[in-house]
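Appendix C reproduces, verbatim, an entry submitted by the partner laboratory led by Prof. M.T., so that reviewers can inspect both the input and the predicted structure.
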Amino acid sequence: MWEAIDFPRLTDQPYPNVMAYVQALEQIYLNGSVEFSTFAIPEHPTFDWYCSRNAFHDMNFFQKFWSAPSVKQTFPFEPKADIDLSADDVFVCIEIATLGEALASALMYGGAYQLHAAGEMDANAKGEAAANELIGAHGDLVRVYACQMPWCDFFWDVLWDWTWVMINPAARRIHLLCTTDTD
């Protein structure tokens, strides 16, 4: 299956609330980086079967996704060999209702040398707005996976390493948000 599948990057999708959130993170992650991309889920019967059962770990999604040509071109970092990305405790499924809170917390916590100057209420608003935009109308079908491990060389292996993967089979979209900073 994995040799026959690619996830084309979607560049024409407007996500103004997500971009406002990304820009806010970029302002506080002075030594790091923030990457956001959206990919299309292609039609593939085997992939769709696993998706319909939320069996992403079972199909080695988190091990194989990064090797897809379009993903590799957008995010050209090889997973570290010593981290088993298919393990349930690396990319952890979080409750959809907590995504906005998780995004807000990352923003409120600040970067290595910079806090979010607009404050807690603004961070909450930005996190919730970004989450709502990413989830869209299919909230009950979206699966969100979070990882705070430095699973590839993009990350500085400090407190500010975050990966969120939001998989929306109904909209046939995968959103990827990776953040890192260092002191």
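The first helix runs from residue 16 to 28. Additional entries are available on request from the coordinating office.
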